[in-house]
Write a structure and sequence with these properties.
The complex is a heterodimer of chains A (460) and B (84).
Chain A lengths: L10 E4 L18 E2 L2 E2 H8 L3 E5 H16 L5 E6 L6 H9 L3 E4 L2 H9 L7 E3 L6 H9 L4 E3 L2 H14 L4 E7 L13 E2 L4 H12 L3 E6 L9 H22 L5 E3 L17 H4 L3 H13 L10 E4 L3 H4 L3 E12 L5 E5 L16 E3 L7 E7 L8 E9 L6 E5 L5 H4 L9 E5 L5 E5 L4 H5 L10 E4 L2 E4 L2
Parallel strand pairs in A: 4-20, 5-6, 5-13, 6-7, 8-9, 9-10, 9-11, 11-12, 12-13, 15-17
Antiparallel strand pairs in A: 2-3, 4-14, 14-15, 14-19, 16-19, 17-18, 20-21, 22-23
Chain B lengths: L7 E2 L4 E3 L6 E4 L1 H11 L4 H11 L4 H17 L10
Antiparallel strand pairs in B: 1-2, 2-3
Classes of the chains: A alpha/beta (460), B mainly alpha (84).
Chain lengths: 460, 84
């Protein structure tokens, strides 16, 4: 006789209190495939944990966002935010869709150039641009978004020295009615700093002011803040036209649109509360169209959307290492992925789905990572089916920031796979080896030998 | 080790403790262990029965069994054992 499928014995106390108005979830559909590729086959081939990116989802996200803006405004350009995910394969999907590159460091700038993006299509943001970075960007005719006066003076000096006239924009920070106000980047609108910077650029004539830029926050849930920001940048542009008879070529609204993740502390799920890209597009486009530009002088609208285009295209497959019971009786599950590779678990309650069939029985549990660190908590509280060692789970909506902010800490970073439109997986970043880490280390000659219990040892 | 005599369990795994008013549900393996513990079956007997019926090895079952027994203790469903 064939033996029955085993499931860990479980006894659950039934609570007879009132149910919340959304009811309780009683079933969990296993998430066995990503774009047609089997989760178990992927881990067999590429190991666990494993990041998986859906090319199909990236492209559909991009097309949807592009459509949202282009149906409302005549001149729209997206620039892929490299810091959100700068794996070259990911960047190139966006470039194939027509995105420029938006970078915030010399490293990212080099990545964009190496990917083949023309210099004039690389927007250079950020507070830390070295003299060398600026010279390269000027040589490549890249738009440089000035963050502070020191950078403005550096650019003027380079311009005087080389005789080149860099294309620049200024980053403007402003009160859009949201908290916290991101006033650490760029020049303030309300106190006149932005106008001072504009005057300095226009009166000096060493620099070519081509655009105005803002980036009002991150994971923004209020579309009205974008409406205010677009109105303030438009106001600056129209006043530049009035005072200096110069048309600003573009208004860059930066990024900050949220993904469908659920922020920690939220009562409702992100999928139910986050505004759509259409709502953001409506707020921004209406504001610029109503600002008073002549039709033929409408500036190009640039968007540096990152998270909203990539987050839900990313998955993390992981395995259960063990489950145990905490001192207060709570169930705890230890996964083979931690906050070192899933930085975003510090601010999101990520959705986690088992990748194999389960019964209807579920448990409340804490999900821990494998690090020897108390902070390594993936979910403080989640209800999942009864997980056992080696079971696979899929963490959803992890495509933004995790593959650029991940830390190499006590273990090696996993491989990343992209599933193409036909469901074929391609490894786009190999799992690190000890050599990837140690190749940059140098042990001084006098530290290469030591003796333990009388046995001489030598480091290779 | 034995389940208290006044604890009621239905065929569907619904468990009721009339002393505290608490009710519980158990999954099939949990129900099986629970019912054997009502008859004061030993750990060896329970293990043999589960290993014969389910796809599980002894080592893994032992860990799960002790966890389950601890839950029964936590909810005060086991008879108090008099110490010698």
């Amino acid at each position: 006789m064939k033996k029955l499928q085993y499931e860990r014995p479980v006894l659950q106390l039934l609570n007879s209190g009132t149910m919340n108005k959304y009811g309780t979830k009683t079933e969990y559909a296993p998430f066995t495939h990503i774009d047609g590729a089997s989760v178990h086959d992927l881990t067999e081939k590429f190991g666990s944990p494993l990041f998986v990116i859906s090319e199909k989802k990236i492209r559909s996200n991009f097309k949807d966002a592009n459509r949202s803006f282009k149906t409302r405004y005549p001149k729209v350009q997206f620039a892929w935010s490299y810091k959100t995910n700068y794996l070259n394969a990911v960047c190139n999907v966006f470039h194939q869709e027509g995105s420029w590159a938006e970078v915030v460091s010399g490293f990212e700038y080099s990545k964009a150039l190496n990917n083949g993006v023309p210099g004039s299509k690389i927007i250079f943001n950020g507070p830390d641009k070295t003299d060398e970075d600026l010279r390269t960007a000027i040589l490549n005719n890249s738009p440089i978004h000035i963050d502070h006066l020191d950078e403005l003076y550096m650019l003027q000096e380079i311009s005087e020295e080389t005789g080149q006239r860099p294309k620049v924009a200024i980053r403007v920070n402003m009160d859009t009615g949201i908290y916290p106000m991101w006033d650490r980047f760029g020049f303030n609108y309300e106190n006149g700093q932005a106008w001072d910077a504009i005057n300095k650029i226009m009166l000096n004539d060493k620099l070519d002011l081509v655009g105005l830029h803002c980036h009002i926050g991150t994971f923004m849930l209020a579309t009205n803040a974008y409406s205010i920001a677009a109105a303030k940048l438009s106001d600056l542009a129209i006043n530049i036209k009035y005072k200096y008879k110069k048309n600003i070529q573009y208004i860059d609204m930066g990024g900050g649109f949220p993904s469908r993740n659920t922020l920690k502390g939220s009562y409702l799920l992100g999928v139910d509360t986050v505004p759509t890209i259409d709502q953001f597009a409506e707020a921004i486009c209406t504001s610029i169209l109503n600002a008073g530009f002549l039709e033929e002088e409408l500036p190009l609208l640039i968007l540096e959307t990152g998270r909203a285009l990539i987050d839900d295209a990313g998955f993390l497959i992981g395995s259960v290492i063990s489950n145990k019971r905490l001192s207060d009786g709570r169930r705890a599950v230890i996964m083979d992925f931690g906050v070192n590779i899933m930085f975003t678990s510090f601010w999101y309650d990520h959705k986690i789905t088992p990748a194999q069939e389960f019964s209807d029985f579920t448990e409340d549990m804490v999900v821990y990572g494998p690090l020897c660190m108390n902070i390594d908590v993936i979910r403080e509280h989640v209800t999942l089916p009864l997980l056992k060692r080696n079971d696979k789970v899929v963490v959803h909506t992890v495509g933004a920031y995790n593959m650029s902010q991940w830390m190499q800490f006590i273990s090696l970073r996993p491989a990343v796979v992209m599933i193409d439109k036909k469901g074929v997986p391609h490894e786009i970043r190999k799992r690190e080896t000890i050599n990837s880490i140690e190749s940059e280390e140098i042990v001084p000659e006098y530290l290469k030998t030591f003796s333990l219990n009388g046995i001489e040892k030598r480091t290779g | 080790m034995k389940i208290k005599n006044n604890i009621a369990v239905s065929d569907s795994g619904f468990i009721f403790n009339p002393t505290t008013g608490d009710s519980f549900s158990a999954n099939p393996v949990g129900q099986e262990i629970f019912k054997m513990l009502q008859t004061a079956a030993t750990e060896e007997e329970i293990t043999a029965n589960i290993l014969e019926t389910y796809q599980i090895d002894k080592v893994r079952f032992e860990k799960d069994f002790y966890d389950f027994v601890n839950v029964l203790k936590k909810y005060k469903l086991l008879e108090e054992i008099e110490k010698d």
